[in-house]
Amino acid sequence: MASSSGTSSGSSTLVLQNSGSEEELQALMDQRKRKRMISNRESARRSRMRKQKHLDDLVSQVATLRKENQQILTSVNITTQQYLNVESENSVLRAQVEELSHRLDSLNEIIDFLNANNTSNGVYGSSSSGGSFMEPVNSFFNNSLNMAFLNQPIMASASDMLQY
């Protein structure tokens, strides 16, 4: 800004040059500011993209983990059911072992009784009362309560009795 008087023409050129420098400086600062704004916008855009990619990765990971979790739950349920089935079968087998043990004990008692009676009556069967050694056997078979044992098959071996 030049003054209206002619005496300061040298200083007015300086002011005009200063003014031009200030304008250039201002323009340079504006240009840097625009560059920084563009750079910041680009950086923010990249940051949003990274954030979105991270979010997408997390969503994908959640889906994968849910699928794995469902598979594990299914496997656990199947295993639990198999365990319950085996446990039930075990209970039935234990009850059968117990029943067969009692039946075997009863049969062994009968054999012991018959052997004791055979020994006391002699091998070929005459006793002092004149009866046969088969009389206890016949009385056993004639008793209807004992017939229940005869109707059921015995399927136990020594190895079955030793395994628990």
Automatic annotation (TrEMBL):
The entry's keywords: Coiled coil, DNA-binding, Nucleus, Transcription, Transcription regulation
GO molecular function: DNA-binding transcription factor activity; protein heterodimerization activity; transcription cis-regulatory region binding
Annotated protein name in UniProt: BZIP domain-containing protein
Species for this entry: Arachis hypogaea
Biased composition (Low complexity): 1-13
GO terms under cellular component: nucleus
Spans annotated as Disordered: 1-53
Domain BZIP: 30-93
Locations listed in the record: Nucleus
Coiled coil: 83-117
Pfam families according to UniProt: bZIP_1 (PF00170)
BP terms from Gene Ontology: positive regulation of DNA-templated transcription
